[in-house]
Amino acid sequence: MTDSSEPRFLFDPYLDWASKEGVPIVEDFGIDLLKVETKPWARLGTNGALVHLKGRGDFVSMFVIDLDPGAKSAPQRHLFEEVIYVLDGHGSTTIETDDGRTHSFEWGPKSLFALPLNARYQHFNGSGQERARLASTNNLPMVINLFHSDAFVFENPYRFDERQGKEGYFSGEGDFIPKRPGRHMWETNFVSDLAEFELQHWAARGAGGSNMMFVLADGTMHAHISEMPVGTYKKGHRHGADFHVCCVKGEGYSLLWYEGDEDFVRVDWGHGVVFAPPDGMFHQHFNTSPYKARYLATALGGLRYPTTQAKKDIFMGMDVNVRDGGAQIEYEDQNPRIDEIYLAELEKNGAESNMGQFIDETPYKKKSA
Question: What is the pLDDT of residues 168-194, one digit of tens each?
Answer without folding.
Answer: 999 999 999 999 999 999 999 999 999
